[in-house]
Amino acid sequence: MAARGKSGQRIEPSFGGVDSDDDDLRVEASDRVSGSARRPARGKSESGKRKARGKRGSQRGSGSGGGFFGLVRRLAYWCIVLGIWGAIGIGGLVLYYGARMPSATSWSIPDRPPNVKILSVSGDIIANRGATGGEALSLENMSPYIPQAVIAIEDRRFYSHFGVDPLGLARAMLTNLTTGRMVQGGSTLTQQLAKNLFLSPERTLERKVQEVLLALWLEQKYSKDQILAMYLNRVFFGSNAYGVEAASRRYFNKSARDVNLGEAAVLAGLLKAPSRLSPARDPDAAEERAQVVLGAMREEGFITDAEIKTAMSQTPTKAKSFWSGAEHYVADMVMDQLPGMIGEINQDLVIDTTIDLTLEKKAEEAISATLDAEGGKLNASQAALVSIDGTGAIRALVGGRDYAESQFDRASKAKRQPGSAFKPFVYAAALEIGRTPMSVRNDAPVRIGNWTPENYDQKYRGEVTLADALANSLNTIAAELVMEVGPQNVVKLAHRLGIDSEMQANASIALGTSEVSLVELTSSYAPFMNGGFKATPHVIRRISTADGTVLYENTYDNPPRVLDPAIVSEMNQMMVRVLTDGTGKKARIKGWEAAGKTGTTQSFRDALFVGFTSNLTTGVWFGNDDGKSMKKVTGGGLPAKAWHDFMTAAHEGLSPSPLFGTTGVQPMFDNGGAVAGPGTLPDGFATANPDAFPEPPASVDGTAAIEQVRPASGESAGPIPPAGVGETTGATRRTTLFELLTGG
Q1: Active site residues
Q2: Could you tell me the pTM of the whole model?
Q3: 391-426 b/e with 16+ CB inside 10 Å = b?
Q4: CA 20 to 30 Å from 13, out of 42, 155, 232, 610?
């Protein structure tokens, strides 16, 4: 503040010796009070402020407003923001698609499609049938290599994730991006199971969301082992095989219980592309994929290098394009019959059959060996065999040369003319009206209406007994007997013995012009074997549920009598001669007494041999599906040879036994044994009208066998005790079937 002197004059303060900073302070102070010198002071102040702001701005720029750390912070910020919005969006989608699903309280595992397990008489599995093609196995019951291989190649973190594997999904995405193609999938085994159980295969966002929800539900409700077992028992392995048991039997013809390391690797490799990698379609591709699986198993520590070396040294799997093995003809027969017995199949079933798998294999081998050896040069491409015991139980059935190539069952579904194999019914009908094996007839030209039957060699033997006529399959004598008996009575007897097919009651029935199946023809011979009781052919013994509840059971232990024992005895004596010195000589079994009859149709289109021992009745057919003629193949040729081979193998190790009624019986002459004159009809024709019986169809020439000339007598078989076929337990005497049936 300015001071005043004594004279009252104002005295300005002196600045001499005053520090400049103080001067500045005084200027600012006076400026604040009086407002003077405001501009210079503001100028200095603004400059200072700008410097201060610049300094502070420099500090902010280096700390948060720019540079690398600022960029990182901004990225982190937006990632968080986007993550939050993404989570909200995903949550919304999950809620939306989840709301479209049924309530979780109603979710349940759908029942596995019913499986039909078909067993042999000894309890061995013949086949599995149904939508899956195999039964379900627990993890404990299947080969340990199977779950290890599947986990190694499909879901390595299976036992550690919660149904969805983020790490696995990220790895798969990275691998697919780097390779530029789909190499790995991100779905877990649980997700795959959820898709297979509940969802369609379409690739949509909705399905994927539902798959994740269902996978989480599965993980919460079931243990890891339960989930893995469900997956392995339901996943598709190609070739109509669902589940490891079906696939193992389909590709390796063995149970999944017995699969080795290399086979397990093949199965696991199929999951990537079941059809393309199937060993039935491309064994090389299947083997290459299996090597990848083995490598994955080694990486996971499931196997060692030594085990890999052993697996790689095994022969690559070469599966047929379809199931193979004659037993599948049996399985098809069972499935055809099931609906008629129990109705709709809506649960797992166990079918006990009458099939002896040992005999089944021997039958298949006999047919294959005969066709392979001579079928080509004799123009015979197909064959069938059926073997039946005295109760009618089918013990072996072969429906064709190779089931993998043709599934048509020629034993039960094909109907063909039996030729002279039908003649035993004609002769049995004649015996029933009083004729005997020693009745004499005249082998000479005979005319019935417009039909003149001839023997194959166009030769006539004059006076012959009925036993001689049957042994040499003389057509003239058979035709005469039909007219004596009446065709309608022959048809009645054939139906009584077991032939169900419709037959024409005409004179030509003597030469087997009515078509029948091999199964019914063979079963109609069984009454000759068992002493005169009907043998209804059957393959199913019992039908049970998986828990053992019996739904159906048959025993056929009370069959009706269809032939008098005396008639059976006489017929057996005559049919034994067919093998010892007649047209069936090639069917003889060393040490065993056997009987039967050959049959050949026109132009050698069909050739049959049906015969029996005291244990089995077996019928064999050879021919071509298109009906083309074979090269002079008769019933006494390839069929008799195959019959011999099978029956010899089937009776190996068993004690021989005689046929019913062939021991201690004396031949008898009937009262009508007078010989008819050449060209005339024997007794009995006088009351018959020959014109009532039309001539045979043009497709039949009346010939039945090529070996019509009587061969020299062969050695006769010795007496033999009965035995249980298929057993190899030494030579203990057993009770005969006839004794069991009659209570003797």
Answers
A1: 154, 420
A2: 0.74
A3: bbbbbbbbbbbbbeeeeebbbbbbebbbbbbbbbbb
A4: 42
